[in-house]
Amino acid sequence: MGVVEELHELRERALTDISSAQDTSALSDVRVAYLGKKGSLTGVLRGLGSLSAQERPTVGKTSNEVRRALEAALDSRKSELEATELQERMDAGALDVTLPGRRRAQGHQHLIQRITREIVEVFVGLGYTVAEGPEVEMEYYNFTALNHTPHHPARSASDTFYVRDRSEGAVVSATGQSDVLLRTHTSPVQIRTMEENDPPIYIIAPGRVYRRDIADPSHLPMFTQVEGIVVDENITFGDLKGTLDHVVQAIFGEGRRTRFRPHFFPFTEPSAEVDVSCGICDGAGCRFCQGTGWLEILGCGMVDPNVFGHAGVDTDRFNGFAFGMGVERIAALKYGIPDLRMLVEGDMRFLRQF
Ligand code: DAH
Predict the structure, then answer these.
(1) What is the pLDDT of residues 160-190, one digit of tens each?
(2) What total number of domains does the chain contain?
(3) Is the dihedral of CA 94, 95, 96, 99 positive or negative?
(4) pTM score, two decimals?
(5) d(CA 155, ligand 1 centre) in Å
(6) Looking at the domain assignment, is residue 344 inside a domain?
(7) Which amino acid residue places its CA nearest to atom 5 of ligand 1?
(8) Is 208 in the same domain as 60?
């Protein structure tokens, strides 16, 4: 058989192999077998040198034709196989790009959490830092160091949740109560902070507090407070007033006014309760503010020297102010929520509004 015939036969064999290759990797083997360095066609071309001058041009031309024919067949089979393989991959993935996405239910902060953070942010903007204390607290920090008299009514077991009793090794106080309780306010964080830090102190302490109250529209046995204390040189009641004015406007909106009413707290002297002007009637008096034009929102005062004494602060050099507010009450006043229990019942129809 002449070389030209051999080439024709090689082409036929190659074309059959190409069309019967079942995937791109088999096809690539076929390419190597014919056109690779040691491939059949390459072998024929290598033998060109030993041919007669007469045969060489025809054989050369034919082998070029064969090579081009094989390359064309390989390319077209390759596209075919690639398309099939892509289709197979898509079928296997079964990805329906027209299917609408699954919507995940998006949560959001509870109103109390949000307002607590808003209040904290206002103080952080004034340069305060956040402090925390335990919810299970020592009677000393909750009452004694805060200048409550030994028989102060708030200490009674009908007002305060006590945690340990005598049988559990509690040290029983003068009032017959145990020494461990659920804190009734965030004020004990004042003492803990002063024990551990030297003035100047500018802190804000958000957290949960507990009282033995039956839940009703204006009481919850567990609620949230934000406490603050400042200890520095030459602090005045004017500083306290200016600070709280700013904070009240930041929370309730500009244009709301404050009013400081004399009050009593064991841990401050003088003490005051602060009212914000009613947002409904702007002070004229309406049902929301029970005709007074004002809504009570927090307690405050100048820190009592007895408290500084317990906390080891030098009262010749330092003084300060403190304040505490109830977040649920602020939320209720801001949004006109008629019953604090709605804040803890977890009814999504209510909570979603905020
Ligand atoms: N601890 C008080 C309460 O729970 C709130 C309070 C009033 C905190 C006056 C203070 C303050 O720091 O100075 O009712």
Answers:
(1) 999 876 566 666 665 556 689 999 999 999 9
(2) 2
(3) positive
(4) 0.71
(5) 15
(6) yes
(7) 324
(8) no
